[in-house]
Amino acid sequence: MRALAVPVAVFLAAAGCVGTVVSLNSVPSPDVRVTVGEEEPGPSPGREPEEGDPGTAEPPGSGTAGPEEPETAEPETGGTGSVPPGSYDGVSVAVGEFAVTVETAYTDATITDGMGMHDTAPEGWEYFILRLDVTNAGSAPAAFDPVGSLGLATDGSEYTNDPGAEYTVAHDYFWDDLAPGETVTTHILFLVPAGTELSSVLINGEVRLSPN
Questions:
Q1: Which residues lie across from 143 on neighbouring strands?
Q2: What are the Cα distances from residue 132, in Å, to 95, 138, 172, 180, 209?
């Protein structure tokens, strides 16, 4: 009996070694990956990426939204562009042989010559008045007549001078001849909507009188 025991033990040991080898051969090889630097591993090949997998997050700024539009600065304005009547005070210009200076400019709904003659503008209107000092700088008698003068409003409207209103206030000068060197005070008037500002005046429709 002892003689048979040894071969049986050897046989069992050999069978165990063979089983171990077969088991080792059936174990699948591990999936070995080489990582370069600190790159996050992506999803395994053959599998759809799932939310939360490394490397599936959208990069900042990605998506369907386009680039932000740059902000556009509002242009700066250089003021209101207001031209009050007083802007004409002291302005001088040569009109033919006459030297013309604006003594004062103002607006009023009622005008008078101070001696009983007066006139009133319609409701919502007023007179734009230029009081002028006019000198005959020529060598011969000549009359200064503002006929055909135009007031150019800041809104682009044009107004012709009002001879009737000018006659009302022109008690000291009725467009008679002036001797060389003679100076008189006279007026140019425009009937305009209340609040109208004139950007310039064309005396006789030709010579531009601009405000200061």
A1: 177
A2: 12, 18, 12, 17, 12
pLDDT of residue 207: 97
The sign of the CA dihedral 79, 84, 89, 93 is positive
Diameter of the chain measured on Cα atoms = 170
Residue 71: predicted pLDDT: 47
Scanning the chain, the segments in alpha helix (DSSP H) are 2-26, 163-169
Q: What is the pLDDT of residues 132-152, one digit of tens each?
A: 999 999 999 999 999 999 999
Q: How many CB atoms lie within 10 A of CB 7?
A: 9
Residue 206 has pLDDT above 80, yes or no: yes
The answer to whether 199 touches 212, Cβ cutoff 8 Å, is no
- Helix/strand number for the chain, H first, E second: 2, 12
Cβ–Cβ under 8 Å, residues 104 and 89: yes
